[in-house]
Write a structure and sequence with these properties.
With 247 residues, the chain is α/β, with parallel strands linked by helices. The chain has a single domain, classed as NAD(P)-binding Rossmann-like Domain (Rossmann fold, 3-Layer(aba) Sandwich), CATH 3.40.50. The protein contains 7 helices and 7 strands. It has a 7-stranded parallel beta sheet with strand order 3-2-1-4-5-6-7, with helices on both faces. The structure holds NADP nicotinamide-adenine-dinucleotide phosphate. NADP nicotinamide-adenine-dinucleotide phosphate binds next to helix 1 and helix 6.
Length: 247
């Protein structure tokens, strides 16, 4: 999808992005700040978040905030505290982008270890469930809040050896649909994006021998994210988007 975002698209909006220290989340955080948003950078590696924070500070726009959280270890209490903090500091949340994910180990189904299965589900799915659950009241304080879930090409069509990651993305799309239906007549909207093959660390670990020169960069897949975060998509909910024509 191609969408040309105006320079003031996200003025007066506060947007929380998970996995904002690297890859697509990092590119999206910087772009959102360029377009006027106050960005909350959530991730687990503080050094990476600080580097993104510095890049945003250099824009001389709204300053960002860093929220260090390991989604794999966070408890329900952490999400409740996180929502209290966002409400206290910002008064509302206009955009929530569930972007962080773990690929896990690609392997035959019968070799999947339950520890790794649980980690992938915790990071990719349960964290998004708990974060959304506790942030809904804060999203409801915004005039029109947008929540974006991140799916994958294996999020609506299963693929051999991609077990827990693929299942977590199917469930992510299911959660998005449940929420979109439940909040149909509200100010909240919920959609999912499949970014498609994108040149990041995760893609490199899934396809180590791939010619990366043919891949889109994170900056090149952001259009649909910006469309869904801006007010043009105010009535759009329950949809799944492919960020690239070829995916
Ligand atoms: N790249 C692709 O081709 C592609 C294709 C389809 C879908 N996707 C999806 O797009 C999203 C972004 O992927 P990406 O390619 O940008 O991946 P990436 O470069 O590996 O970045 C993932 C980000 O998530 C963070 N993260 C992972 N586990 C976490 C945890 N337990 N707690 C907190 N943060 C955690 C990472 O933090 P650290 O930097 O600290 O590790 C990193 O900042 C993911 O949902 C992925 O499934 C990507």
């Amino acid at each position: 999808m191609h969408y040309e975002a105006p320079d003031n698209l996200l003025d007066n909006k506060t947007i929380l992005i998970t996995g904002a220290g690297d890859g697509i989340g990092k590119a999206l955080a910087i772009k959102c700040a360029e377009l006027g948003a106050e960005v909350i950078l959530l991730g687990r590696t503080v050094k990476k978040l600080e580097a993104v924070y510095d890049q945003i500070a250099a824009l001389n726009k709204k300053s960002a905030a860093i929220l260090p959280v390991d989604l794999n270890g966070a408890t329900e209490e952490h999400y409740s505290d996180l929502a209290d903090t966002v409400l206290r500091e910002y008064g509302k949340l206009d955009g929530l982008v569930h972007n962080a994910s773990q690929l896990g180990v690609l392997s035959p189904f019968k070799q999947i270890e339950s520890k790794m299965w649980n980690e992938v589900m915790q990071t990719n799915l349960t964290s998004a469930f708990l974060m959304t659950k506790y942030l809904i009241p804060v999203l409801e304080k915004a005039p029109h809040a947008s929540t974006i879930f991140t799916s994958s090409g294996v999020g609506n069509k299963g693929r051999a050896y991609w077990g827990p990651y693929s299942v977590s993305k199917f469930a992510t799309e299911g959660m998005m649909q449940v929420l979109a239906d439940e909040y149909e007549n509200s100010t909240l909207r919920f959609n999912a994006i499949n970014p498609g093959a994108t040149k990041t660390a995760m893609r490199a670990s899934a396809f180590p021998a791939e010619d990366t020169s043919i891949l889109k960069t994170p900056d090149e897949v952001l259009s649909v994210y910006l469309y869904l975060l801006g007010d043009r998509s105010m009535v759009v909910t329950g949809n799944r988007y492919n960020a690239q024509d070829k995916y």
